[in-house]
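Here is an idea for our session: we take a single protein and study its fold together. Once you have written the record down, we can walk along the chain together.
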Amino acid sequence: MLKRLRRRGILHTAETVFNRLVPKWLFRFSVGDVFDLDFQLLQESAGRPLSGDGSMACIEDENARLALREFTWNSVPLESTQDDFGYAVLKTSEVDSPPDPAEGYSYVGGVWAGTGSFSEADLGFRIDLQPSQAWLYCAFVDREARGGGLYKKLLGFVAEDLQSRGYQRLSVIIQPWNKASIHVHRSLSRRRVGRVCVVKLLGFAWVFCSGEISQTKRFTASIEGNPVILMV
């Protein structure tokens, strides 16, 4: 138990338990470090070839995207993610024989890349992205598949695909006490952009930023209708 706590991070575990006990409409406190990931490092760490690896794909079928949202615990409002890219690692048995939609879709890992803007509706802020910038979020890998470099390989595939679409920058926000996630993303980043700190009480939110992150304001009394806008 203690070994597991050290691996995940005591603060990260405490936050997870707290968020399960306290309703999100009542109170939330969140801190995140923003990193710019390095496309070259992503592709080098994944190994090659990537584009020819049939176990990975950018999911376009609507039903498959819905299944990927569920698999990755993606609760970002559907209407704000229509143009986002969903990437998945398919189960080996489905690489050569795509699953029948009626039987459902099976994934081993997945992650999303947002474009245009990214809304943290529950926390009262929205990140406006540059035209050549994508935002990484909602990554998830099956427990049985963790520890073997699968996530890094998926990120390499994501980087290669985004570059082919004209994106030159990939950013991500990670909670500093999530030790495993910080370790992976920091090792694949070219710089730490800054930090975002949010306190939300009922329908009010206070947002504080540091580093190279700018914002339109620090407070909103309408977290959904009038969010704080961030530029990263």
